[in-house]
Amino acid sequence: MKKLLIALSATLATGAALAEYPDKPITIIVPFAAGGPTDKVARDLAEALRKPLGATLVIENVGGAGGTLGAGRVAKAANDGYTLLLHHIGMATAPALYRNLSYKVLDDFEYLGLINEVPMTLIGKPSLPAANYAELNKWLEANKGKVNLANAGLGSASHLCGLIYQSTIKIDMTTVPYKGTGPAMTDLIGGQVDLMCDQTTNTTAQIEGGKVKAYAVTTPQRLGTASLKALPTLDEAGLKGFNVSIWHGLYAPKGTPKAVLDKVNAALKVALKDAEFHKREEALGAVIVNDARVNPAEHKAFVAAEVAKWTPVIKAAGQYAD
């Protein structure tokens, strides 16, 4: 009887704690430095979540090792709902890129919902002779073994896009990694490298300013922005089914109570309809997710499919980190 009363008391206490959640600030770990695209998404989302969740949300940047340090911290954090992770496509590519990953992507997290998708653009140095994608394709064929493809470092969006682009067109290029998009873009504008494939958040201003040549977008639909809507998709250009975008999702440590997960997911769905959040994301060239992937099960299934998609591409390229 005594044990039953103790168990009942513990259950009631847990239920009361869940009913009060959240009763203190929630930390969202961003596994990259402040000021980047993922950090911006996190800060915009935190503001949109504040009212429906009824809590203050604090952004903590834990950069390093391609986002794996921050993700690893959340995997080992207390599963009480007060530490969340906002991560991009690196969630799905890390298992193939890192031999000694400290966590299991599909086992060590609770999935809360997908947030957005960011298209990418294929751009070239201003002196490239090709005026459009058809001409670029001919130029690539004529210059096999001579083309340099810049990226912002191992595991970056530009690195991943470059890998799958080379795999699709079956033309190997010399990959030139940089410590961030900034120096990579500087050398592309200066003509030290030939091509780069990167997020609209990083390329739109350079395209609009005429500092680089733009050839195509990587999603099945053209971009909606007035300055870029004339850009063809790679699918239209002949690479049927080509679809690469950078997405962001929200996660909690494994074992976080379902009642807490349900509260956060419900608040996330409200935040994704927030007009100000839409306005800020559209300015980044991002598209808010409004399909079933805002649900935990569909979000996890999507990431599992992305792991399956990227693993053979990365392994075929033989590019790993310890």
From TrEMBL:
Q: Which Pfam families match?
A: TctC
Q: Which InterPro entries match?
A: BUG, Bug_dom1
The question of whether Iron is a record keyword is answered with no
Q: Which UniProt keywords apply?
A: Signal
Q: State the signal peptide span.
A: 1-19
Q: Which domain of life is it from?
A: Bacteria
PANTHER family attached to this UniProt entry = BLR1237 PROTEIN, TRICARBOXYLATE-BINDING PROTEIN
Family to which this protein belongs: Belongs to the UPF0065 (bug) family.
Record-given protein name: Tripartite tricarboxylate transporter substrate binding protein BugD
What organism is this sequence from? Answer: Aquariibacter albus
